[in-house]
Design brief:
Helix content is 46%, strand content 19%. It is of the alpha/beta class. Strands 1, 2, 3, 4, 5, 6, 7, 8, 9 and 10 form a 10-stranded mixed β-sheet that branches.
């Protein structure tokens, strides 16, 4: 097919020897061939680093870097900075993509003159069997306000994740991943959309997402859920700053959904209690400004968290 520029694919790697070859092979087997693969080994303790080296030795378009453990965000940022492509994609090392992943997303960017294209995805199991087909994204071109509203809908996660999409490298370098946070996608998604103005969406399911129980994002903790709520709070404040009054209800709903999850988990130690207090204040702000109704438990836990958890303890919940 026509050469539309080099595409860099950044794959952060950490202790994924079971899935890594499947992931890399899926990129090597793309219908669009102008691709460089950047493998960032984030201090793996299993055979992942050796697998990376084997691919780097065998394929000229595979670049391998071994670094001390710094987290997935730092690995993605490093890969972005050293990338040589005009476009960039981020693929998690326990996932894989369909053969037309890059070609179709690149066509969507070029034909619609956008800096981001996103697609639907499948949830798969360890045997690469599809267990859930996500058909949330439709064939359309949206602006940042329209995308934000869709984030508040059921399965709005499809619009927030950093994978299952392709970006211009120029845009990706403007909005780096937030280090030291879980839910890093949540922190950067809105800034990416706001900076890109228009987003091309295609309905094809081109990304295969593996629900890996050992990954950080699969474990709901007080800290990880607090990070998610903080990201929605930042998004809420950004919407206010932009003056997008019609988006306030959607931004509030994202915060409320995050708070619904957070309030189910009691902080376990002083650090988590302090973090919980911070996020409760964030939710109080959204509750006050949200122009939307909130349930009794939302208001109770925001105003009197000790009372809320005491009642839960008495009721044995």
């Amino acid at each position: 097919m026509e050469n539309k520029g080099l595409v860099s694919v950044v794959i952060p790697v950490y202790n994924v020897q079971k899935y890594l070859e499947c992931c890399i092979d899926s990129i090597l087997n793309q219908t669009y061939k102008e691709v460089e693969i950047i493998l960032v080994d984030d201090g793996s303790k299993d055979e992942s680093g050796a697998i990376c080296d084997r691919y780097g030795e065998k394929y000229e378009n595979v670049r391998v870097y071994h670094r001390e453990n710094a987290g997935v965000s730092a690995s993605r940022n490093f890969g972005t900075e050293i990338s040589k492509g005009k476009y960039i994609a981020f693929v998690d090392s326990d996932d894989y993509v369909e053969p037309g992943y890059i070609e179709k997303l690149l066509n969507a960017i070029v034909s619609n003159n956008t800096e981001i294209a996103l697609c639907n995805y499948n949830k798969v199991n360890d045997d690469n069997e599809v267990i859930h087909e996500l058909d949330v994204v439709k064939d359309e071109v949206l602006d940042a306000k329209e995308i934000l509203k869709k984030c508040a809908e059921e399965h709005g996660f499809s619009y927030i994740v950093c994978w299952a999409r392709l970006y211009s490298v120029e845009l990706a370098k403007k909005v780096p991943f937030r280090t030291g946070k879980v839910c890093e996608d949540e922190f950067m998604a809105f800034d990416l959309f706001k900076n890109s103005k228009r987003i091309a969406c295609i309905s094809d399911r081109l990304y295969d997402y593996r629900k890996n129980s050992s990954s950080i994002t699969s474990r709901n903790t007080s800290i990880s859920l607090a990070d998610c709520l903080e990201a929605t709070y930042e998004r809420f404040k950004a919407v206010e700053k932009e003056g997008w009054e019609d988006c306030i209800p959607a931004a509030y709903k994202c915060g409320r959904d995050a708070f619904e999850k957070l309030k189910t988990i009691k902080p376990r130690n002083a650090k988590e209690r302090e973090r919980y207090k911070e996020t409760v204040e964030m939710f109080r702000y959204m509750l006050k400004k949200g122009k939307a109704s909130a349930g009794f438990t939302d208001r109770l836990v925001a105003v009197a968290p000790k009372l809320y958890f005491g009642m839960k303890r008495m009721l044995g919940k």
